[in-house]
Hints:
Blueprint: H1 28-51, H2 57-79, H3 87-111, H4 117-124, H5 127-138, H6 146-163, H7 173-198, H8 206-223, H9 225-228, H10 237-265, H11 267-270, H12 273-289, H13 296-311
Amino acid sequence: MPGAGVAGSRYSRWVPSKTSPPARAGGTPVLLQFLGMGLVWGSSFLFMKVALTGISFGQVAWGRLVLGALTLGIIVLVGRHRLPREPVVYLHFFVIGAVGCAVPFLCFAWAEQYVSSSLASIYNATTPIMTALMATLAFRVERLNRNQVLGVGLGIVGTVVIIGPWSYAALTGDLLGQFACLLAALCYGFTFGYTRRFLSGRSISGVPFAFLQVGMGAVVLVALTPVVALSPLVLDAPIVASMLALGALGTGLVYVWNITVLRSWGPTSASTVTYITPVIGVILGVLVLGERFGWNAPVGAVLVLVGILLTQKRLRVLASRAEPAVTQ
């Protein structure tokens, strides 16, 4: 994720470079890694909720990034992966580490003090919609056809339905928490657009790419330690286990699984993890934490899902024109 993010093509944590090796046919181990991605990233919202019972939201984000960076660093060392040499590349990784990891991880952890883990996982699923907006409007690296524009519109409508503005008379913590989730998804969208614009054409292999992004995010939060992480904490077995799952597994090892699936199946098939993570998040929130939500959350989630299908060109309801439409 980067909080629970998605995989493949425009929406992947790692955008393949032009020199990436060709995909190969995936077998059962790749399928297990794919299912593991969906399970771990979908569970991350539950892990955050559990961790928040003993540590602050800043400590959740801090620990998650540091553990993830250490795990990926070990993988880089053991695998003897080469890091890029161009100095400018590290500036780009600083940007996507800060905006694609540090900020959204802080946002989701802060938000889950006020909203359910189920609702946070649903908002995370809006990332492909945010990505389509940023890639088209901000970075101009993609052109949307009419079905994709419709998908973005449906995604926006679905998000409004999930928020349920008719239920609020003031800016409550619940409402601000939902806005924080949307800000996190917007950060992911910015990151994917930025990566497509400035890094996707460089010959950087997947594991170093993941390490540098997570590592730069960790550098940002380590620098902010006095602000975000120096507060009293209470640790017990569930909290420690949740942080290890969030950091070493969800922000470390699973990034490598994502790369394996992407190379074996290709971006289109790998991106279907988008549909697994919110389902896992909602199921765990309801069954483990006993969470409940109103009618508007599932209805809005369905609209967002249809919007994702349209933006990812998996569903078509409008006839295509000869030239794709461009949003202004």
